[in-house]
Each structure stands twice: as structure tokens, then as C-alpha cells.
Amino acid sequence: MSQAFKFAFEDENNEDDVPKDDSESIVEDAPVSRLAPTLHELDDILVVLPSNLQYNTIPLNHPDNGTITLPRRELFDIRAQIMAEDTTLDEVGAGHSVDDIKPNIYEGGFKTWECSIDLANHLLSRASAASDASTVVEVHHSLHPFSARADQDLFDQLGAGTAIPTLALFYLLLRSTPPLDPPRRTLVLADYNPSVLHLATIPNLLLTYAMASELIPPASGDLDITPALILSFKQGLAERNIDIRAISGSWGAPLASLIIPGGPASEDVPLDRAWILASETIYSPASTMAFTACLVETMQKFEEPGGRARALVAAKKVYFGVGGGIDEFLGVLRKNGGEGSLVWETEGMGSGVGRCILEVTRRAGR
Questions:
Q1: Which residues pair with 53 in a beta bridge?
Q2: Nearest-CA neighbor of 105 among 117, 94, 120, 119?
Q3: Residues 3-59: tens digit of each pLDDT
């Protein structure tokens, strides 16, 4: 596509798994455990997908071209597969509800949380395609001074879950005509639970590919998973030079090291720009400390070899009953050498618990 375009996101999702106020779905905090980070090969996930995926859609309003939609796997379809599996990748299938967070067991990844929609909305309102097609996605505004031209871009969503913000960016990449020599785009999806990556995150990327490619209509339905579809998906990624990486495990330095192929000193994978995305990750003091340390560590690993990194963190202002929130996060962030500035917040009393998005950077010299 040669013309410039922008998206605005209409926050209207009446699905039962996206409540207006989902604070009550978070149980009391527990000590942070250490689940060793693991890199999951995309092929290994694709080969074990079920023969059919049921999905619903999230509407997006395009200011010029009307309504577009993003697909996501139906929660009941995920539940059905968990119940049918004889073995599970983690403890999620051992009688636990997929609705609520159980710290250190299940971190809520099957559910689309409210602030992830806010973050997708914010990203799409700021994203545009370069008119000369030299850049597939340009995130501008407060992400300045990132150049519009870069050889290596990485989008990393910590606590990915259903990955709605990443799906929004992925859709833009797919709907833009790739240049002859497209810059490399790496999409990293990190979630605590391996089962979430296998049952929700990667299936949602495949569904988004099918919808962006007009293989399925922009309405709720189902998609047959065939060898031809998987081959087309891989070819579409290769044509656009998109690399998808899935990582499970606890937040920490080992996970940050896995996010960057080859490590910070790698000469094989030079890094230019990174966008680190997160939503609903600071719901308790324990989660805030672990997440913040991992976030700043990841940004540092990008900046050590000369790259530039920014983060966008979407959250409720206060998580009642569990102690997390924006003030807690900003305090921990400052102690870890970072700074946060407000770039979006809900308006008016009718929006329920206040929600906002912070842009995070590392302080100079840290």
C-alpha cells in the first residue's frame, strides 16, 4: 500500500472474557517462582495445532476505510482442547480455570485483558505506513527520535497472552506491500505459560495471517488448519522478512537474554530499534518487581550494542486488593534505572477503574 494510513481502535468487545473491570479476576499474590525460560520453535508449535480453530473477532475502526477486524481464538475452543489433552505443557490443564490468575501457576494468558485492548488502540492510533514503502511500520510521535529507516526492528511483548497489541502490528505488516528487500522484523512473544503460547498466542497469529490475507471473512467462524495454510503462512513471513519467536518462563535476566538472538554482542544480528510492549503485568508488588527488572534488563541489552529501545506499559492505575498499580511501578522503575511518562489515560468517571499507558525509557548512564 502506498498511501499513508492510521488506525483508531474502538474499545467495544462484549465477549465474556473481556470484562469491563477484571480486577476481581486477580487472586492474592504469592512469592515469585522461577520457571526456566525456554525458546519454543515456531515449527514445533505449528505442527501440533488442532485441525480446526474456532475464533471470534475484535472490531477496529479505520478512519478512512471503515471497520476492520482482528481474530482471536475462542476461549471455549481453548478450554475444549485443554480438557481433551491427555498431557499438558504446564499446570494449567490440571483443573485450573482459564479465567483467573493463579500466580506462579497460570498468569491469565488465555484471557484478553482490558488494558491489552487499550494498548492495541494506542499503537494503532500512532502507526502509519511510509508512503514510499521503504518502511513497513513507522511508530512515531513520542517514540521519536527513532529513525523511520532501520535494518532490524524488534517488537517484544512481555506477558503476551492472546497478544492483541502484537496482532495489531502484525496485521499492519501483512497488509502493507513488502519492498523488494524488506527490513527484518522480529516479533517476540513471551508468556509465563508454555500452554498459552501453544494454544492461544501462536494460533492467534495464524488466524490474523488468514484474515489479513482474506482467507477467512472478517467475522466469527472457524479455520481449518491444513498443510497448505501452514506453508502459505511461512511463505508470507519469509516474503516480509518477519521472524516469530515464542518464549515461556519467568521474568528475569535469562529471559531477557533469550529475547535477543545471539546476545547483546552478536555481530550476526545487529539491532536498530526495539519496542517492548506489556499490559496488565504490574498487578501486584511481586509481579511489579520481577517485571520491571526484566523490562529494564531487556532494554539495556538492546542499547549496549548501539540499539535504541522504548517500552509501552498499559495498566490500571490501582489493582485493588493485590497492591499493584502505576505508582508502585514508577517507584520500582526509578530504582531500576528507568523513567516513565504518561502517554494515554482514560477520561471521565464512567470508564470504571482508571487505566493508562506509560512510555518507559532507561535513564542516561544506567
A1: 223
A2: 94
A3: 322 222 233 344 444 445 555 454 444 445 578 999 999 999 999 999 999 999 997
pLDDT score, position 354: 92
Dihedral, 340, 344, 347, 350 alpha carbons, nearest 10? -90
* DSSP 8-state class, residue 341: E
Between the alpha carbon of residue 193 and those of residues 38, 247, 262, 264, the distances in Å are: 10, 9, 23, 25
Q: How confident is the model at residue 265 (pLDDT cuts 50, 70, 90)?
A: very low
Residue 86's CB is within 10 A of a number of other CB atoms, namely 5
| Cα 104–Cα 106–Cα 330 angle in degrees, nearest 5 | 65
| CA dist., res. 284 & res. 279, Å (int) | 13
Which element (helix H / strand E) includes 186?
strand 184-191
SS3 label, residue 279: strand
pLDDT tens readout for residues 97-137: 666 677 778 888 999 998 998 898 788 777 643 333 333 34
Contact 88, 195 (CB under 8 A): yes
CA 286 to chain centre: 21
- In angstroms, the Cα distances linking 74 to 54, 57, 63, 95, 204 are 6, 9, 28, 19, 10
Query: Which residue type, as a one-letter code, is found at position 145?
Result: P
pTM (2 d.p.) = 0.84
One-letter amino acid identity for 180? L
pLDDT reported for residue 306: 81
How many angstroms separate the CA atoms of 270 and 273, rounded? 10
- How far from 328 is each of 15, 50, 92, 316, 351, CA to CA, in Å? 30, 41, 29, 11, 22
247: pLDDT strictly greater than 70: yes
Cα-flanking dihedrals φ and ψ of residue 349, to 5°?
A: -80, -20
Element holding 77 (H helix, E strand): helix 75-84
With b for 16 or more beta-carbon neighbours within 10 A and e for fewer, the 222-231 pattern comes to: ebebeeebee
